[in-house]
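Milestone M4 deliverable, item 7.
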Amino acid sequence: SAGEGAGYAGGILSAGVDGIRVAEALVRDMLGIEG
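Output delivered:
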């Protein structure tokens, strides 16, 4: 259904955002940047 498709896309988008945040945290940790 359309609802399921929207939920699936939303889950992918959410996972992508989480991945970006994790990547940023890893880069900051490697560079020794606080915050």
